[in-house]
Amino acid sequence: METIYALATARGKAGVAVIRLSGPRSFSAIKNLAGSLPEPRVAGLRSLRDDTGQLLDEALVLTFVEGHSFTGEQSAELHLHGSQATVAAVLRALEKQEDLRLAEPGEFTRRALENGQLDLAQVEGLADLIEAETEAQRKQALRVLTGALGDKAAIWRSRLVRAAALLEATIDFADEDVPVDVSPEVLELLAEVGLSLEEEARGVAVSERIRDGFEVAIVGPPNAGKSTLLNALAGREAAITSEYAGTTRDVIEVRMDLNGLPVTVLDTAGLRETEDYVEGIGIARAMERAKLADMRVFLQGDEGSYLELRPEADDIVVRGKGDLRGNDGFRVSGKTGLGVSELIARITKILDVRVATAATATRERHRIAIERAMKALESARNEVMNGPDRAELAAEEIRTAIRALDSLIGLVDVENILDEIFASFCLGK
What is d(CA 321, CA 300) in angstroms, rounded to the nearest whole number? Predict the structure, then answer.
């Protein structure tokens, strides 16, 4: 195994910069620079010098013995002063040493996976944690990183292994009288796991939304105050506003953090019948995006038409340009801020209810694996119901379900997706 090194912190001027090393020559490489090493996992201040004896920096040095590091290998860290010149000088000094090379993007994490320090779901959780922009994203990613999905998969697997073992016992003693009918216990185990998998599968869509962001579309007739409301929510001039109907011709997207939730708010073209070709394209796009959004805010204006769009259960209906309307009902004004805080509260309350149903599984890959397992378990249940003569087929279906769950955490069938996953990691992670 080669020894790799890379800058682990962002490039540019900073108070501190961290360079990481991992591999069998980590300690000797650091010793060449620092002269001596502190005790493992105890930071020590050292003077770093290049091969000519020139002082490079005063740095904190940390070492980790094999089995007790992020990668599972012998590893070390240099905590330097964060100037670009200092970092460049230390990297040059490492480059000159034999059997060291610059790490590829994601290589530290890939080694952690290969050495059993992380499972594949935890690697994905780490990638999501690095990309997290909101509190909800942070919490979800951290839950996956700390092994929550792997823990669930282990429970499912143990129950299915038990079910398969019971069936295989009947196969082994097929020519003898087996005093106990195992089918009730097997069916109970399959039902328990199947119910848990079904619940997990239902929550994946919400988990994906937490990671990628919810979409909230502002819809309504022309000149109802949609663009002004978007600007008020965004806190900047994201959309052009005017007194003329039909100003917005395309869907304008603004990504924001609403009370910890990642939300993309869509400002859409005013909905009305029109003979203007370009406006008609904008209205068609508005209708399409609004239908696909997670929820819609219907702004009521002087015109009442939403064409074929109708508010659904979680949608919000509110009077637009509330500063110009009467005092009846829920009103909002992007111009004066009237009702904007209440609107945000209503949106987040609705989305919070959905977030509560989120699964531990967070990706499409997870959903596909879970659904494969569910399908195999349904087949296994049918085989068990058909009698003891079908026990061998039932056991094979259970093993198929176990393999599907093993793919969740990277025990099988993962080589084809590793490159895609690690391509998203930065250098030094």
Answer: 9
